[in-house]
Amino acid sequence: MRNNILKMVYSAVFTALGVVLPFAFHAVPNAGSVLLPMHIPVLLCGLICGFPYGLSCGVLTPILSSLLIGMPQAASLPGMLCELAVYGLVSSLLMQFVRTKNNYADICIALISAMLSGRIVYGMVNALIFSVGAYSFKLWATAAFITSIPGIIAQIIVIPILIVSLQKARLIDKRYA
Predict the structure, then answer these.
(1) Contact 21, 13 (CB under 8 A)
(2) Start-end of H helices in the chain
(3) How far is CA 29 from CA 17, 23, 32, 34, 166, in A?
(4) Which of 3, 90, 145, 164 would you call most buried, defined as having the most Cβ atoms within 10 angstroms of its Cβ?
(5) End-to-end CA separation in angstroms for the chain
């Protein structure tokens, strides 16, 4: 990345996209929980801008969206906030430290690791918030993986393509020369 100001601008754009995209998707019932539109900008921010920008985008996006649009609702906000914060944190740190000499491999390792870590944290937070027995492994697996299969597939396909395209367009720095 050229400098911190550019990273701040990109981070602000990703945070705004994280608020606007879900708003558009909520016109269709369950589209948010199936397609995960808030996750994509946060993951992109972590992968492109690095730490601490990815983490801040992951924290600010669900809070701003909840305050401005009412989604996520208060009951699901803590789990989603922690999930997205972990997305931003893990993706940014892994992009900093994973160096396979293959740009696409680095992106995929960081992306999939962040997605798995965030979903695990989401389940743990929800298990702590809801009364014992009200939140089960089956409920978590259904919400984190089964219902959101289209969104997970879209993230794995679209995010690396977007990053490589932005690198080719010289809007972000190439990982390897």
Answers:
(1) no
(2) 4-25, 31-35, 39-49, 53-69, 77-97, 103-129, 137-141, 149-168
(3) 20, 12, 8, 10, 32
(4) 90
(5) 14
CATH architecture of 4-168: Orthogonal Bundle (1.10)
pTM, entire model: 0.93
The residue type found at 73 is Q
CA angle at 159 for the pair 155 and 160, rounded to the nearest 5° = 125
pLDDT in tens, 12-49: 999 999 999 988 887 788 787 888 999 999 999 999 99
From 119, 116, 113, select the one nearest 83 (Cα to Cα). 119
CB-based contact 53:92 (threshold 8 Å): yes
